Amino acid sequence: MSVSPDHPPRPHDGTATAPPRVRFGVREATAAVLTATVALYIALVAFGNITDFDTNRQFVRHVLAMDTTFQDDDLMWRAITSHVWQDAAYVAIICWETLAALVLLTATWMWLRRRNLRRARVLSTAGLLMLLLLFGAGFIAIGGEWFSMWQSEKWNGLEAATRVVLLSGLALLTVQLTSDRPGETDSA
């Protein structure tokens, strides 16, 4: 029986053996650490939003209502003043953050497990893109520009959103720099 690095031999008693660990270099370790850092951060953000629901609900309500902006009549038609819609948006944000945290925590586990780095890379990429969508497209573009959040002195989350975009973008670039290695696609 020939042994291939992609398919390790199985014991004769019929039980399966664990797939081999793949090479884990500096790039993979860096990707794992950055993924874990972002996972921890967004998990804490989601946890804070769940356990201290009202604080950031007020933030979302003020941003959507545009009540602390310059009150320009040419822009105020964009405001969403319904508490139902504001709260629905806030709950959707929390759900998205929680899902991204779970994806990134799973990716971190996959990186550390070192059995399928391709899956770790795919999960990291998915979770990081989720955060780039939420904080880049959601907070910076829609909140910052559409709802003119940049005009508010008190309810302006652009700096915090930019930090998340930068950290997530850096992590995403690092994850993408890890390359496929033999054995990455064959083990679960």
Average of the residue pLDDT scores: 89
Shape annotation: elongated
* Tally of individual helices: 5
Tally of structural domains: 1
Q: Tell me the span between the first and last alpha carbons.
A: 23 Å
Q: Which structural category fits the helices and strands? A: mainly alpha
State the total count of DSSP E strands. Answer: 0
Radius of gyration, rounded?
A: 22 Å
Give the low-confidence spans: 1-7, 184-188
- Please indicate the percent range of residues in DSSP E strands (runs of 2 or more): under 5%
List the secondary-structure elements in sequence, H or E: HHHHH
Main beta-sheet strand count, sense and barrel state: none
Helix content: 55-70%
Describe this structure in words.
It contains five helices and no strands. With 188 residues, the chain is an all-alpha fold. It has one domain. Helix 1 crosses helix 2, helix 1 crosses helix 4 and helix 4 runs antiparallel to helix 5 (158-177). The two termini are 23 Å apart. The relative contact order is 0.18.
Write the layout of secondary structure elements.
Elements: H1 26-51, H2 53-65, H3 83-113, H4 117-146, H5 158-177
Helix pairs in contact: 1-2, 1-3, 1-4, 1-5, 2-3, 3-4, 4-5
Protein name: DUF2165 domain-containing protein
Transmembrane segments: 31-50, 88-112, 124-148
Organism: Streptomyces oryzae
